[in-house]
Amino acid sequence: MELWKISQKVSELSDVIPYYFFSLVSSCLSLSTVMVIFSLGTWGMIGIIVNSFYVVIPYLLFAVPVQVVFNKHPKKFSLIYFCLYIFFSLPAVFIYSSVLNFDFSMDVLTTKNYYAISLLAALFFWFWDSVFLQKKSSAS
To answer: d(Cα 23, Cα 127) in Å, to the nearest integer?
Structure first.
């Protein structure tokens, strides 16, 4: 590959990285806020910040790679993308729950919270991806 092509690819990627960051941060804060509200904890803002640090890891490992693939063919508020985000959020939340609780049994799959958090994680990421990245990619 010629040097100018590599330079062009790096330039295109650097233009989109802030939008990936905004999508990731917004998703983490949204999911953490809902988790704190529904846990009825008294943590408040501290709980949101702490939960965001825990939530960012599954998002980075599972959602961002899928997001990169989706943004090759941008579709704003695509239901197919939403369904695929749900598909990838299920194992992400399972691993997240298992690691945080030090319990790798399948019991977590029987709780309503597992499915609620999986759906919300996918919903928030899909929403913020459509707001920040799909719009940016569509305009390019």
So the answer is: 9
Between CA 94 and CA 103 the distance in angstroms is 10
**Residues near 102 by Cβ (< 8 Å), separated by ≥ 6?**
none
0.70 exceeded by pTM: yes
Integer Cα distance of 105 and 5 in angstroms: 49
- Which tens digit of pLDDT belongs to each residue from 74-98? 888 889 999 999 999 999 888 888 7
Contacts of 49 (CB under 8 A, 6+ apart): 32
The SS3 assignment for 40 reads: coil
Q: What angle do CA 122, 126, 132 make, to 5 degrees?
A: 145
